[in-house]
Design a protein that fits this description.
Poly(a)-polymerase, middle domain; alpha+beta; globular; four-stranded antiparallel sheet; Beta Polymerase, domain 2; 14 strands; 412 residues
């Protein structure tokens, strides 16, 4: 235990930005928000500005390039469309609600329009809840000393294990979900111990919106509580703050927690690219690029294509290991594969009474035979990966186009 505490202390020193860095970011924010306020006032637009994200909550992690979330709370929906006219040289980013991105003194500023609402249930978009989220977490951090540092540890560990991000191509923990989890458990260590030893669904309701866990499972919309961890948003009872977390990502994170607790090391807090796991293992690497906007949209589309690619690949090869990686900067996805030749097999086809299906099966498999009233065919798997890949590109042209893939090639 002493070793773990020592490692966590070392990590906090590494991941906590300096006071100078914080002051520089704060200066950029104040200058930007001052100009934006003046523009809003000049154009007689009723809106107010508030700072969101990790910087506002005091949970910012040290990194090469910093970003800040600036929310503009509009009094009505119509005024949201006027935001673009107030931001010079800003890049429009499409999402559930479009927002804008610009750079000031090497700091990325994301300007996010939201509706000014008094009650969370009036939200038209999840971003409308951000104001309530920031205030809730700030209150928790003020109540407990060092909670901000514990949140930093959780985010760094989670990111390093490729489990951080609510995007659909990651299906991991959102920043807000981790903040709520650490607020609930009180420390990073207690949180990962709970995850490591968990064999059942973890259910948290710190807002005490429901009588018990059973009521949550009955009352909350089933589509919102499929995740391995359910965190009822303290600010809004209808929302599961960890709904993005998939079973696959949770199990990967749980395994990382177990390994760290068994053999603690600073290496668990160091990000390791997916490619590292496939080094010197004769891996096949496929590069894929979509024609979609980079970020969640392109990443999600690429992941969907990866799943289709794996489905087709399994028909010819035994997949020993596979993984997906999406790089937002380059807007490229990479498929990593370690394959073995698949054993020849006997594939069962339709029943002899299914005349049309039987005819199709025989056309695809001329050497098919009937056994116990079903058609069967011996399938020989003798294609090399290169030949299979060429065949895949030729046969799946329509699907590749429909899935918005503009480039796909083998690079290793």
């Amino acid at each position: 235990m002493e070793n773990i505490k020592k490692i966590l202390k070392q990590q906090i020193k590494k991941i906590k930005p300096s006071e100078k860095t914080i002051n520089n970011i704060d200066k950029v924010y104040k200058e930007f928000s001052k100009d934006l306020k003046e523009n809003l006032k000049y154009r007689k637009i009723r809106a107010e500005i508030f700072l969101g994200g990790s910087f506002a909550k005091g949970t910012l992690m040290k990194k090469d390039k910093y970003d800040i979330d600036v929310f503009v709370r509009f009094s009505n929906q119509e005024d949201i469309s006027k935001l673009k006219g107030l931001l010079k040289r800003a890049r429009k980013v499409h999402g559930s609600r479009d927002y804008y991105e610009l750079v000031k003194k090497n700091i990325i500023i994301e300007v996010i329009p939201v509706l000014k609402i008094k009650k969370p249930e009036k939200a038209e978009n999840v971003t409308d809840l951000s104001y309530f989220h920031v205030n809730y977490i700030l209150k928790k951090i003020k109540q407990k000393k060092n909670l901000g540092d514990e949140i930093r540890l959780a985010k760094t560990f989670c990111y390093s294990q490729n489990c951080y991000g609510a995007e659909s191509y990651i299906h991991g923990f959102s920043g807000y979900a981790l903040e709520l989890l650490i607020s609930h458990y009180g420390s990073f260590l207690k949180f990962i111990k709970e995850v490591a030893n968990s064999s059942n669904k973890i259910i948290i309701d710190d807002g005490k919106h429901y009588k018990n866990k059973q009521e949550i499972l009955i009352e909350v919309n089933k589509s919102k509580i499929q995740s391995p961890i359910i965190i009822i948003d303290p600010t809004f009872k209808e929302r599961n703050a960890s709904a993005s977390l998939s079973k696959e990502t949770f199990e990967k994170f749980q395994a990382s927690c177990q390994k760290f607790l068994k053999n603690p090391s600073n290496s668990f807090f160091k990000y390791k690219p997916v490619s590292e796991d496939f080094k010197n293992k004769k891996a096949k690497i496929i590069l894929v690029k979509t024609n979609k906007q980079k970020g969640d949209i392109a990443g999600t589309k690429s992941k969907k294509f990866f799943n289709f690619f794996i489905y087709k690949l399994k028909q010819e090869f035994d997949i020993k290991k596979s993984d997906f990686d999406y790089d937002e900067d380059s807007n490229l996805a990479f498929f990593y594969l370690i394959l073995d030749k698949k054993k020849d097999e006997i594939r069962r086809g339709p029943h002899i009474t299914k005349v049309e299906n039987l005819a199709n099966f025989k056309r695809v498999h001329p050497n098919s035979f009937i056994k116990n009233h079903f058609a069967h065919a011996k399938i020989t798997h003798n294609l090399s990966f290169d030949k299979w890949f060429k065949k895949f590109l030729e046969e799946e042209v329509k699907i590749i186009k429909e899935m918005s893939i503009k480039e796909i090639k083998k690079i290793s």
